[in-house]
Specification:
The protein is mainly α and about 450 residues long. It contains 20 helices and no strands. Helix 11 packs across helix 12, helix 15 packs across helix 17 and helix 16 packs antiparallel against helix 20. Its main location: nucleus.
Length: about 450
């Protein structure tokens, strides 16, 4: 930190009698002028880059020229650290000029953060290792002990993890009390358990049977394996090198990683469901919330259509209206925005015009009945029996004597082809689910967030 003293103020006067004298008031005015004329409309830059953009002819004030102001600021900066942004440096310089004393902002009573389990082990074994290996340097001993810790049995590691958890809880309590007593801002809560468990590191002794979450996609799987293979040798160049390797891979090689990742997701889903099923309700809820687990959707017994079976048309007038209007709406709009726009148009549509869509539904249902009868006749007696057993409501469309009923719009049932009644907002919500379903087919929908 820079401390203003009389030597700095009078240095220019001693060197050149004709140069105006820099007083304390002048120095404060220089900082204020710099703040006023900071480069605008730029993202935060380093000190050197921001200084190049300063227009010193605007910063200058009488009786000093632009060159003199710049020179004086540079002389002040000689005694200040520069790894912050220019606005931060100006704030510190202003504070130092107002209170030119050497002060410390860190309290000596502040609780000290406990070291992690691995470092605890290294500190404990350091002296013994030095005696046994006097030829090794401290960094070499540290690496040796780190490898020894990694090879320890899980039971021994769990003891270090348990002690670290107790120390961490005590530290958080002391820090919280310290901040309150000193009227300081309370520290943000950090999810230590979640962070360590996510990486599969220390802290995983509890709920050991919980399966490890797989990488989200093939590239993440590649990065994980590449990191293990390369080790710490690449250092800061790891991301650059790994990204280049991934770009150079062929589509076939990338597809292998994607396929492996999909298999890992399926395996994870099965293991997770098996693990959660063996727990009682309270314990299951606790683990889901504590570990922030995304619970897989329950596998539903969806009816699989038979080859050639015609699809039953929708009974929603709104869906017909949506399909018709979607042709004239800007494709650049997001799916939900398009739906909202069509919803508004549907609300404004009079009932007399809505009847046109009712007629379209009746006509499509008439065609569906004919197609269903023709297709049903192509089935063997056994297939016909099985089909009617699974879909008993289809009999009303297959009977020759059955007249075409003018059915009202109905709510959707569990079966895809059963009659539907839709009213008001429910009719509109159906189109949202249909549109979103078509969009989600392109994405992985294996997991839903458990709220």
């Amino acid at each position: 930190m820079y401390k203003i003293n009389e030597e700095d103020v009078d240095s220019d006067a001693d060197s050149d009698a004709l140069t105006p004298e820099w007083t304390q008031k002048n120095l404060k005015q220089l900082i204020a002028s710099l703040k006023e004329h900071l480069p605008t409309g730029r993202r935060p830059e380093t000190y050197i880059r921001e200084m190049k953009a300063v227009e010193w002819h605007k910063v200058a004030f009488s009786p000093f020229s632009a060159e003199e102001c710049q020179e004086k600021w540079n002389s002040i900066m000689v005694k200040m650290r520069r790894y912050r942004t220019l606005p931060e440096l100006l704030d510190e310089a202003e504070a130092l000029l107002s209170h030119p004393v050497n002060y410390k902002t860190i309290h000596s009573e502040l609780p000290k953060l406990p070291v992690n389990p691995k470092m605890k082990y290294i500190a404990k074994e350091m002296s013994n290792c030095k005696n046994n290996h006097p030829e090794l340097s401290c960094p070499e001993i540290t690496k040796l002990l780190a490898k020894k810790y990694d090879s320890l049995p899980d039971e021994e590691k769990a003891e270090y993890v348990r002690k670290h958890s107790l120390e961490l809880s005590e530290y958080n309590k002391k820090k919280h009390d310290f901040c309150i007593s000193n009227k300081l801002r309370l520290p943000m809560k950090r999810s230590w358990k979640r962070r360590s468990n996510k990486n599969g590191g220390e802290g995983c002794s509890k709920d050991e049977e919980l399966p490890e979450k797989p990488p989200p996609h093939g590239r993440a799987l590649f990065l994980k394996e590449f990191s293990k293979a390369s080790g710490p040798s690449l250092g800061a160049n790891f991301l650059k090198t790994s990204s280049q390797r991934w770009r150079e891979m062929s589509k076939k090689e990338k597809q292998k990683y994607n396929s492996r990742c999909d298999e890992m997701k399926k395996e994870y889903k099965n293991k997770l469901l098996k693990y959660l099923d063996q727990l009682d309700v309270e314990e299951r809820q606790r683990i889901i919330k504590e570990k922030n687990i995304k619970v897989p959707k329950a596998t539903l017994g969806h009816y699989v259509k038979m080859p050639g079976e015609p699809k039953m048309p929708t009974h929603s007038r709104f869906i017909y209206f949506h399909k018709e209007q979607a042709k004239y709406i800007d494709k650049a709009l997001k799916g939900k925005d398009r739906i909202q726009m069509i919803k508004k148009q549907w609300h404004e549509l009079p009932e007399s015009e809505r009847k046109r869509y009712t007629k379209m539904i009746k006509e499509d249902m008439r065609k569906y009945k004919e197609d269903l009868k023709k297709w049903f006749q192509t089935l063997s007696p056994k297939e016909q029996k099985d089909y009617l057993k699974r879909k008993p409501r289809k009999q009303q469309y297959l009977k020759q004597s059955l007249p075409i009923k003018e059915r009202n719009l109905k709510l959707p049932s569990d079966s895809e082809d059963e009659d539907i009644v839709l009213s008001g907002d429910e009719e509109e919500n159906l189109i949202e689910s249909e549109v979103e379903e078509s969009e989600e087919e392109e994405c992985s929908d294996m997991f839903d967030m458990y709220d």
